[in-house]
Design a protein that fits this description.
86 residues; mainly alpha
């Protein structure tokens, strides 16, 4: 799907014309959808074109998006480490 956004010329000039506006707009959209719970990590990774999890983690951290981490998450990680012999 292609989306067209009309931006007044004076604002477009201030936002920059180096071709990154479409990417920045898409990043803002998918970040908001992720924060709202309408996109999964895997969908976000796919939309952003990231190959590995670390790329997505870095992107989220750079945009101050942190997922909740509770006692259940800690327990699952503890069990995984135990299964691996740590």
């Amino acid at each position: 799907m292609n989306i067209v956004i009309d931006i007044p010329d004076d604002l477009a000039a201030r936002l920059g014309t180096d071709g990154d506006i479409p990417r920045r707009a898409m990043e803002a959209l998918v970040l908001e959808e992720f924060r709202a719970g309408r996109m999964t990590r895997e969908e976000l990774k796919r939309m952003l074109g990231f190959e590995v999890r670390n790329e997505l983690d870095g992107f989220l951290k750079a945009h101050h998006v942190y997922e909740p981490y509770g006692i259940g998450d800690l327990e699952r990680e503890r069990q995984d480490l135990e299964r691996l012999g740590f």
